[in-house]
Amino acid sequence: MSDQRKTPLGKSRALVSPIGLGTVGMAGFNNHVNYRQFEEAIGVAFEGGIQHFDAAPFYGHGKAEYYLGHAIRELGIRQHVTLSTKAGRILKPANRFREVKGRYAIDWVEPLPFVAEYDYSYDGIMRSFEDSQFRLGQDFIDVLLLHDVGEAWHGDQAAIYWDQLNKSGGYRALDELRGGGYISAVGLGVNDTDSVLRASSEFDIDCALIAGRYSLLNHAPLDGAFDELQKRNVSVIAAGVFNSGILATGTKAGNLTYDYNTVPEDILTRVRSIEKVCDAFNVELVSAAIEFVKLHPAVSTVLLGAQNAEAVSTNLQAASRSAPKAFWEMLKVRGLIPEKAPVE
Protein backbone atom coordinates (compact mmCIF):
# COMPACT_ATOMS: atom_id res chain seq x y z
CA MET A 1 0.00 0.00 0.00
CA SER A 2 1.07 3.61 -0.47
CA ASP A 3 2.56 5.50 2.44
CA GLN A 4 -0.18 7.64 4.00
CA ARG A 5 2.21 9.30 6.46
CA LYS A 6 2.40 12.79 4.99
CA THR A 7 2.19 15.20 7.92
CA PRO A 8 5.19 15.89 10.20
CA LEU A 9 4.79 16.40 13.92
CA GLY A 10 6.23 19.83 14.61
CA LYS A 11 9.79 20.12 13.38
CA SER A 12 10.46 16.41 13.82
CA ARG A 13 11.01 13.64 11.29
CA ALA A 14 7.98 11.73 12.58
CA LEU A 15 5.20 11.56 9.99
CA VAL A 16 1.59 10.61 10.68
CA SER A 17 -1.32 9.42 8.56
CA PRO A 18 -4.55 11.50 8.58
CA ILE A 19 -6.20 8.91 10.83
CA GLY A 20 -4.44 7.02 13.61
CA LEU A 21 -5.53 4.21 15.91
CA GLY A 22 -5.40 4.36 19.69
CA THR A 23 -5.20 1.07 21.58
CA VAL A 24 -6.74 1.92 24.94
CA GLY A 25 -10.08 0.38 23.92
CA MET A 26 -8.37 -2.92 23.09
CA ALA A 27 -6.32 -3.13 26.28
CA GLY A 28 -9.10 -3.97 28.71
CA PHE A 29 -10.97 -0.67 28.93
CA ASN A 30 -14.46 -1.88 29.92
CA ASN A 31 -14.12 -5.05 27.84
CA HIS A 32 -11.87 -8.00 27.14
CA VAL A 33 -9.99 -8.27 23.84
CA ASN A 34 -7.73 -11.23 23.25
CA TYR A 35 -4.54 -11.08 21.22
CA ARG A 36 -6.04 -12.56 18.04
CA GLN A 37 -8.80 -9.92 18.07
CA PHE A 38 -6.19 -7.22 18.70
CA GLU A 39 -4.03 -8.31 15.77
CA GLU A 40 -7.06 -8.51 13.49
CA ALA A 41 -7.97 -4.92 14.35
CA ILE A 42 -4.43 -3.71 13.66
CA GLY A 43 -4.43 -5.52 10.32
CA VAL A 44 -7.77 -4.01 9.26
CA ALA A 45 -6.55 -0.56 10.31
CA PHE A 46 -3.34 -0.86 8.31
CA GLU A 47 -5.09 -2.16 5.21
CA GLY A 48 -7.49 0.78 5.52
CA GLY A 49 -4.68 3.34 5.45
CA ILE A 50 -3.96 3.85 9.15
CA GLN A 51 -0.21 4.04 9.69
CA HIS A 52 0.00 5.63 13.12
CA PHE A 53 -0.59 3.47 16.19
CA ASP A 54 -0.59 4.76 19.76
CA ALA A 55 -0.13 2.88 23.03
CA ALA A 56 0.92 3.56 26.62
CA PRO A 57 2.29 1.60 29.58
CA PHE A 58 -0.91 2.52 31.46
CA TYR A 59 -3.21 0.81 28.94
CA GLY A 60 -3.93 -2.59 30.43
CA HIS A 61 -0.81 -2.12 32.57
CA GLY A 62 1.48 -3.06 29.71
CA LYS A 63 -0.96 -5.11 27.62
CA ALA A 64 -1.43 -2.54 24.84
CA GLU A 65 2.31 -2.25 24.21
CA TYR A 66 2.85 -5.99 24.51
CA TYR A 67 0.07 -6.79 22.04
CA LEU A 68 0.86 -3.93 19.65
CA GLY A 69 4.53 -4.73 19.33
CA HIS A 70 3.83 -8.39 18.64
CA ALA A 71 1.08 -7.56 16.14
CA ILE A 72 3.19 -5.27 13.98
CA ARG A 73 5.97 -7.88 13.94
CA GLU A 74 3.57 -10.67 13.00
CA LEU A 75 2.02 -8.50 10.28
CA GLY A 76 5.45 -7.39 9.03
CA ILE A 77 4.53 -3.70 8.92
CA ARG A 78 7.01 -1.98 11.25
CA GLN A 79 8.78 -0.07 8.48
CA HIS A 80 5.45 1.30 7.27
CA VAL A 81 4.05 2.62 10.55
CA THR A 82 4.63 5.32 13.14
CA LEU A 83 4.57 4.16 16.76
CA SER A 84 3.84 6.41 19.70
CA THR A 85 3.82 5.51 23.36
CA LYS A 86 4.05 7.38 26.63
CA ALA A 87 6.17 7.99 29.70
CA GLY A 88 5.44 9.14 33.23
CA ARG A 89 4.39 5.85 34.77
CA ILE A 90 6.63 2.99 35.85
CA LEU A 91 5.06 -0.47 35.96
CA LYS A 92 5.91 -2.63 38.97
CA PRO A 93 4.83 -6.14 40.03
CA ALA A 94 1.37 -6.05 41.58
CA ASN A 95 2.32 -8.58 44.26
CA ARG A 96 4.94 -6.21 45.66
CA PHE A 97 3.54 -2.70 45.16
CA ARG A 98 0.28 -0.80 45.58
CA GLU A 99 -1.02 1.31 42.72
CA VAL A 100 -1.19 5.08 43.09
CA LYS A 101 -4.32 6.15 41.25
CA GLY A 102 -4.94 9.50 39.59
CA ARG A 103 -8.09 11.57 39.64
CA TYR A 104 -9.77 9.24 37.16
CA ALA A 105 -9.20 5.62 38.19
CA ILE A 106 -9.72 2.92 35.56
CA ASP A 107 -10.48 -0.70 36.40
CA TRP A 108 -8.88 -2.59 33.53
CA VAL A 109 -10.38 -5.91 32.45
CA GLU A 110 -7.75 -8.64 32.80
CA PRO A 111 -4.69 -6.36 32.81
CA LEU A 112 -1.16 -7.65 33.04
CA PRO A 113 -0.06 -8.21 36.68
CA PHE A 114 1.49 -4.80 37.25
CA VAL A 115 0.61 -1.52 38.92
CA ALA A 116 1.60 1.97 37.84
CA GLU A 117 3.70 4.47 39.79
CA TYR A 118 4.06 8.07 38.59
CA ASP A 119 7.59 9.20 37.85
CA TYR A 120 8.46 12.12 35.53
CA SER A 121 12.09 12.43 36.66
CA TYR A 122 15.14 11.76 34.49
CA ASP A 123 15.50 8.21 35.77
CA GLY A 124 11.75 7.65 35.56
CA ILE A 125 11.48 8.76 31.93
CA MET A 126 14.52 6.70 30.94
CA ARG A 127 13.27 3.58 32.69
CA SER A 128 9.77 4.01 31.26
CA PHE A 129 11.18 4.35 27.75
CA GLU A 130 13.41 1.29 28.05
CA ASP A 131 10.59 -0.78 29.55
CA SER A 132 8.37 0.26 26.62
CA GLN A 133 11.08 -0.84 24.20
CA PHE A 134 11.09 -4.27 25.83
CA ARG A 135 7.29 -4.62 25.83
CA LEU A 136 6.99 -3.41 22.24
CA GLY A 137 10.01 -5.42 21.14
CA GLN A 138 11.31 -2.37 19.29
CA ASP A 139 14.63 -0.57 19.62
CA PHE A 140 13.19 2.63 18.08
CA ILE A 141 9.95 4.38 19.02
CA ASP A 142 8.88 7.24 16.79
CA VAL A 143 7.02 9.41 19.32
CA LEU A 144 7.26 9.59 23.12
CA LEU A 145 4.57 11.48 25.02
CA LEU A 146 4.48 12.58 28.66
CA HIS A 147 1.32 10.93 29.91
CA ASP A 148 -1.25 12.71 32.10
CA VAL A 149 1.03 15.41 33.42
CA GLY A 150 -0.74 18.48 34.78
CA GLU A 151 -3.56 19.59 37.02
CA ALA A 152 -6.34 18.02 34.95
CA TRP A 153 -5.15 14.58 36.02
CA HIS A 154 -3.12 15.09 39.20
CA GLY A 155 -5.00 17.97 40.81
CA ASP A 156 -3.15 19.39 43.81
CA GLN A 157 -0.31 16.91 43.32
CA ALA A 158 0.58 18.28 39.89
CA ALA A 159 3.29 20.60 41.23
CA ILE A 160 5.28 17.55 42.34
CA TYR A 161 5.45 16.23 38.80
CA TRP A 162 6.16 19.59 37.15
CA ASP A 163 9.13 19.82 39.51
CA GLN A 164 10.28 16.36 38.41
CA LEU A 165 10.24 17.52 34.79
CA ASN A 166 12.02 20.81 35.47
CA LYS A 167 14.26 20.13 38.47
CA SER A 168 14.74 16.35 38.40
CA GLY A 169 15.69 16.05 34.75
CA GLY A 170 12.51 14.81 33.06
CA TYR A 171 12.82 17.29 30.22
CA ARG A 172 16.54 16.55 29.99
CA ALA A 173 15.75 12.86 29.46
CA LEU A 174 13.42 13.72 26.58
CA ASP A 175 16.07 15.97 25.08
CA GLU A 176 18.71 13.23 25.25
CA LEU A 177 16.43 10.60 23.75
CA ARG A 178 15.45 12.86 20.86
CA GLY A 179 18.94 14.25 20.36
CA GLY A 180 20.43 10.76 20.40
CA GLY A 181 18.05 9.55 17.71
CA TYR A 182 16.24 7.03 19.90
CA ILE A 183 12.94 8.81 19.21
CA SER A 184 11.92 11.32 16.56
CA ALA A 185 9.35 13.45 18.38
CA VAL A 186 8.41 14.28 21.96
CA GLY A 187 5.26 15.75 23.40
CA LEU A 188 2.38 15.31 25.83
CA GLY A 189 -0.56 12.92 26.01
CA VAL A 190 -3.21 14.68 28.10
CA ASN A 191 -6.87 15.62 28.46
CA ASP A 192 -6.42 19.39 28.54
CA THR A 193 -4.70 22.23 26.72
CA ASP A 194 -3.36 24.16 29.74
CA SER A 195 -0.66 21.59 30.46
CA VAL A 196 0.38 21.60 26.80
CA LEU A 197 0.74 25.38 26.80
CA ARG A 198 2.78 25.24 29.98
CA ALA A 199 5.05 22.41 28.83
CA SER A 200 5.65 24.03 25.43
CA SER A 201 6.72 27.23 27.20
CA GLU A 202 9.22 25.29 29.32
CA PHE A 203 10.55 22.80 26.78
CA ASP A 204 10.68 22.37 23.01
CA ILE A 205 7.98 19.78 22.34
CA ASP A 206 6.92 18.66 18.87
CA CYS A 207 3.34 17.58 19.45
CA ALA A 208 0.54 16.95 21.90
CA LEU A 209 -2.06 14.22 21.98
CA ILE A 210 -5.10 16.05 23.35
CA ALA A 211 -8.10 13.87 24.15
CA GLY A 212 -11.70 15.04 24.25
CA ARG A 213 -11.02 18.75 24.36
CA TYR A 214 -11.83 19.63 20.75
CA SER A 215 -14.95 18.12 19.24
CA LEU A 216 -18.38 19.01 17.90
CA LEU A 217 -19.34 19.54 21.55
CA ASN A 218 -16.14 21.08 22.96
CA HIS A 219 -14.77 24.21 21.32
CA ALA A 220 -12.61 25.75 24.06
CA PRO A 221 -9.29 25.42 22.14
CA LEU A 222 -10.68 27.93 19.62
CA ASP A 223 -10.35 30.61 22.29
CA GLY A 224 -6.62 30.82 21.74
CA ALA A 225 -4.97 27.53 22.70
CA PHE A 226 -4.80 26.05 19.20
CA ASP A 227 -3.65 29.37 17.71
CA GLU A 228 -0.84 29.53 20.25
CA LEU A 229 0.22 25.95 19.62
CA GLN A 230 0.39 26.67 15.90
CA LYS A 231 2.65 29.65 16.62
CA ARG A 232 4.90 27.37 18.67
CA ASN A 233 4.88 24.70 15.92
CA VAL A 234 3.31 22.12 18.22
CA SER A 235 1.23 19.65 16.23
CA VAL A 236 -2.03 18.40 17.71
CA ILE A 237 -2.87 14.71 17.70
CA ALA A 238 -6.60 14.93 18.33
CA ALA A 239 -8.17 12.05 20.26
CA GLY A 240 -11.48 11.47 22.00
CA VAL A 241 -13.37 13.14 19.16
CA PHE A 242 -16.56 11.25 20.07
CA ASN A 243 -16.42 12.44 23.70
CA SER A 244 -16.30 8.79 24.81
CA GLY A 245 -19.35 7.72 22.84
CA ILE A 246 -22.22 10.17 22.41
CA LEU A 247 -20.93 11.51 19.07
CA ALA A 248 -20.32 8.00 17.74
CA THR A 249 -23.65 6.47 18.69
CA GLY A 250 -26.03 9.42 18.65
CA THR A 251 -28.82 9.93 21.16
CA LYS A 252 -30.92 6.88 20.27
CA ALA A 253 -28.41 4.26 21.41
CA GLY A 254 -28.35 2.69 24.84
CA ASN A 255 -25.75 3.27 27.57
CA LEU A 256 -24.89 6.76 26.38
CA THR A 257 -21.73 8.35 27.78
CA TYR A 258 -20.15 11.77 27.64
CA ASP A 259 -16.53 11.99 28.78
CA TYR A 260 -16.98 8.59 30.45
CA ASN A 261 -19.92 9.72 32.56
CA THR A 262 -23.70 9.97 32.24
CA VAL A 263 -24.65 12.44 29.52
CA PRO A 264 -25.90 15.77 30.96
CA GLU A 265 -29.28 16.93 29.69
CA ASP A 266 -27.86 20.04 28.01
CA ILE A 267 -25.41 17.87 26.03
CA LEU A 268 -28.24 15.55 24.97
CA THR A 269 -30.19 18.57 23.75
CA ARG A 270 -27.23 19.86 21.72
CA VAL A 271 -26.56 16.48 20.15
CA ARG A 272 -30.22 16.13 19.18
CA SER A 273 -30.00 19.52 17.50
CA ILE A 274 -26.85 18.46 15.62
CA GLU A 275 -28.60 15.24 14.59
CA LYS A 276 -31.45 17.24 13.04
CA VAL A 277 -28.97 19.12 10.85
CA CYS A 278 -27.26 15.83 9.97
CA ASP A 279 -30.61 14.38 8.89
CA ALA A 280 -31.38 17.44 6.78
CA PHE A 281 -28.13 17.07 4.84
CA ASN A 282 -27.89 13.27 4.90
CA VAL A 283 -24.67 13.42 6.92
CA GLU A 284 -23.80 10.80 9.52
CA LEU A 285 -23.10 12.18 12.98
CA VAL A 286 -19.96 10.05 13.36
CA SER A 287 -18.56 11.36 10.07
CA ALA A 288 -19.26 14.95 11.05
CA ALA A 289 -17.55 14.43 14.41
CA ILE A 290 -14.37 13.20 12.72
CA GLU A 291 -14.34 15.75 9.92
CA PHE A 292 -14.96 18.73 12.21
CA VAL A 293 -11.76 17.98 14.10
CA LYS A 294 -9.73 17.10 10.98
CA LEU A 295 -10.54 20.47 9.43
CA HIS A 296 -8.69 22.49 12.07
CA PRO A 297 -5.22 23.40 10.73
CA ALA A 298 -3.62 22.79 14.14
CA VAL A 299 -4.62 19.11 13.94
CA SER A 300 -2.10 16.84 12.21
CA THR A 301 -3.97 13.58 12.74
CA VAL A 302 -7.16 12.29 14.34
CA LEU A 303 -6.60 9.33 16.63
CA LEU A 304 -9.64 7.07 16.74
CA GLY A 305 -10.20 4.35 19.29
CA ALA A 306 -11.86 1.00 18.68
CA GLN A 307 -12.53 -2.28 20.47
CA ASN A 308 -12.43 -4.62 17.48
CA ALA A 309 -11.82 -4.90 13.75
CA GLU A 310 -15.45 -4.18 12.91
CA ALA A 311 -15.32 -0.88 14.79
CA VAL A 312 -12.06 0.03 13.03
CA SER A 313 -13.69 -0.59 9.65
CA THR A 314 -16.77 1.44 10.61
CA ASN A 315 -14.61 4.37 11.72
CA LEU A 316 -12.58 4.27 8.52
CA GLN A 317 -15.73 4.38 6.42
CA ALA A 318 -17.03 7.29 8.47
CA ALA A 319 -13.73 9.16 8.13
CA SER A 320 -13.84 8.84 4.34
CA ARG A 321 -17.06 10.87 4.01
CA SER A 322 -17.22 14.66 3.78
CA ALA A 323 -20.09 17.00 4.58
CA PRO A 324 -21.11 19.82 2.22
CA LYS A 325 -20.19 23.39 3.06
CA ALA A 326 -23.87 24.22 3.64
CA PHE A 327 -23.96 21.67 6.46
CA TRP A 328 -21.29 23.49 8.43
CA GLU A 329 -22.89 26.84 7.68
CA MET A 330 -26.19 25.59 9.10
CA LEU A 331 -24.47 24.40 12.30
CA LYS A 332 -23.05 27.91 12.68
CA VAL A 333 -26.37 29.60 11.95
CA ARG A 334 -28.01 27.50 14.67
CA GLY A 335 -25.24 28.26 17.14
CA LEU A 336 -24.12 24.65 17.40
CA ILE A 337 -20.51 25.38 16.48
CA PRO A 338 -18.71 28.72 16.77
CA GLU A 339 -18.58 31.08 13.81
CA LYS A 340 -14.76 31.01 14.00
CA ALA A 341 -14.52 27.20 13.75
CA PRO A 342 -12.48 26.20 10.65
CA VAL A 343 -14.69 24.10 8.38
CA GLU A 344 -12.88 24.05 5.04
Main attributes?
344 residues; alpha/beta; TIM Barrel; 8-stranded parallel beta barrel; two-stranded antiparallel sheet
CATH topology: TIM Barrel
Known CATH architecture: Alpha-Beta Barrel
What percent of the residues sit in helical stretches (DSSP H or I)?
A: 25-40%
Helix and strand pattern? EEEHEHEEEHEHHHEHEHEHHHEHH
Q: What is the CATH first-level class name? A: Alpha Beta
Fraction of residues in β-strands = 15-25%
Largest sheet: 8 strands, parallel, barrel
Backbone structural class = alpha/beta
What does the overall shape look like? globular
Classified in CATH, the superfamily is NADP-dependent oxidoreductase domain
Distance between the termini: 28 Å
Radius of gyration: 19 Å
**Arrangement of strands in the largest sheet:** 3-4-5-8-9-10-11-12
Q: Which spans have pLDDT < 50 for at least 5 consecutive residues?
A: none
The DSSP helix count reads 13
Kindly give the count of domains: 1
In quaternary terms, these chains amount to single chain
The total strand number stands at 12
Write the topology of this structure.
Layout lengths: L6 E2 L6 E2 L2 E4 L12 H13 L4 E3 L8 H13 L6 E6 L1 E5 L20 E5 L3 H15 L6 E5 L3 H4 L3 H9 L3 H10 L5 E6 L3 H9 L4 E5 L13 H7 L3 E5 L6 H4 L15 H17 L3 H10 L4 E7 L3 H11 L5 H9 L11
Parallel strand pairs: 3-4, 3-12, 4-5, 5-8, 8-9, 9-10, 10-11, 11-12
Antiparallel strand pairs: 1-2, 6-7
